[in-house]
Amino acid sequence: MLDFGIFTLPAVAAAMVFVAALFVGEDIVIEKVYVPEVREWSGYTSTVATRILTDELRELSVAAASELQAINIDEGGVEKGISAFEDYFEVGLLINGTRNVLGLIKYYINGEITEQREETQLVIRVYTKKEDEPVKLIVVRGKVDDIDGLLHEGAIQILEFINPYVIALYHRRNELEAKQFDFPKTRASIAMFLEKQPAEQHFLAYGLLGRTHMLRAERDTTLTPEQREAEYAEAIRLLDAALYQQPDFLYPLINLGIIYAGKKDYARADAFFARAVRQHPNYLITRTAWGKMLDEQGLVDDAILQYEAAVLINPDDAQLHAKLAGLYERAGRKEDAAAQAEKALKLDPVSQAYFDKSKDYGVKDLPATAVQ
Q1: How far apart are CA 166 and CA 215, in angstroms?
Q2: Using an 8 Å Cβ cutoff, are 139 and 150 in contact?
Q3: Who contacts 138 (Cβ-Cβ below 8 Å, separation ≥6)?
Q4: Residue 114: in which H helix or E strand, if any?
């Protein structure tokens, strides 16, 4: 029982967070990253270095969009919201201690930064409490004046050891931005994942590999038509493999729907989009991709249903409201079209296109800032 005296309501909230903390995914506990005393004069204390490494791990996980296998970085806590309670009640040791007793903490991290002449070295140890599992030693070297870069690279190597899938997602994003359509680092991390993880988890890798082939087919302008079709075929093969292992895996369902929609194979695309919506009704991409495909076929009423769902999911997107207004207009629903056009204009009151449409629909009290 948590006894915080007069802090009755906050204690209840803390208890709720505490319970949540015990059952949230995979965990990393950063014990300490020690820094030479000389560095403390420039602001890099051990506490600061530990916080930077913690933040790097969080940001990498977020950047990877790893909703599929969330990793919670625990620095005497579990998440930012939990840390706030711990800072106030000083229950960090209690939470960590309880998690440790229950065997829920998987990885521990400590390390130190050392300096030799013009080089700085970060040594990180990653270990578990299992005696038969060796300590993973990570060594990163860099320039003396680039502690942040050193900690960033250390965070990448930590996550690559613990969960290569997260880093594969991170690399895919960066390589896509750089137009490296062969995705070398992504593939290397996926290979590590396939080697380390049990076979029943391989659907994650198949889904990600399939997505890389799909992205190359979509965006690599150097491909011939035959090469593009080959990339799509390989994407379909891998995405199907992911669904064979995990039939409810959302992302292959969406990707296959998009691929078949692009091929004008509307029946197959429709089936995959329907499965994706059943799995996750409030996923915006599914709704808009399905709606776009239905609109292409002239199925206006069906497209309206998808865009109605889309504007409920994201009511602050002016383009979605404008799209729905256009569909309502084509369906002969003038009042509904006017209402959606007005919502689009209120979200983007300087848009001439939205102003003109609202004016056409007879919307009153239009902004004076648009060109009349």
Answers
A1: 18
A2: no
A3: 111, 122, 123, 124, 125, 126, 154, 157, 158, 161
A4: strand 107-116
Please give the pLDDT value at position 129.
Answer: 80
Q: What is d(CA 348, CA 233) in angstroms, rounded to the nearest whole number?
A: 41
Reduce the DSSP state of residue 125 to 3 states and report it: strand
At 151, which helix (H) or strand (E)? helix 147-162
Q: Which strand ranges, in their side-by-side order, compose the sheet holding 107-116?
A: 71-74, 26-34, 107-116, 119-127, 136-143
Q: Using one digit for the tens of pLDDT, what is the confidence trace for 68-91? A: 433 334 443 333 333 433 333 344
Residue owning tokens 């902004």: 367
In the chain, which stretches have pLDDT less than 70? 1-27, 40-41, 62-105, 369-372
The tokens for 65 are 């969009």
Question: Under a CB-based contact definition with an 8 Å cutoff, are residues 325 and 310 in contact?
Answer: no
Tokens of residue 63, six digits:
């950047």
Quick one: which of 30, 63, 250, 55 has its CA closest to 162?
A: 30
Look up residue 123 and give its two tokens: 């040594």
What pLDDT is recorded for position 321? 98
Largest CA distance in the chain: 76
Closest CA to 98 of 194, 172, 15: 15
Token code pair at residue 174 = 């960066």
What is the C-alpha R_g of the chain? Answer: 26
- The Cβ of residue 272 has, within 10 Å, a number of other Cβ atoms equal to 24
Q: And the tokens for 309?
A: 């769902």
Please give the pLDDT value at position 12.
Answer: 37
Instruction: Please give the Cα distance from 208 to 186 (Å, whole number).
Output: 9
Q: Which residue has the tokens 């979200």?
A: 347
**CA angle, residues 220, 184, 250, in degrees to nearest 5:** 70
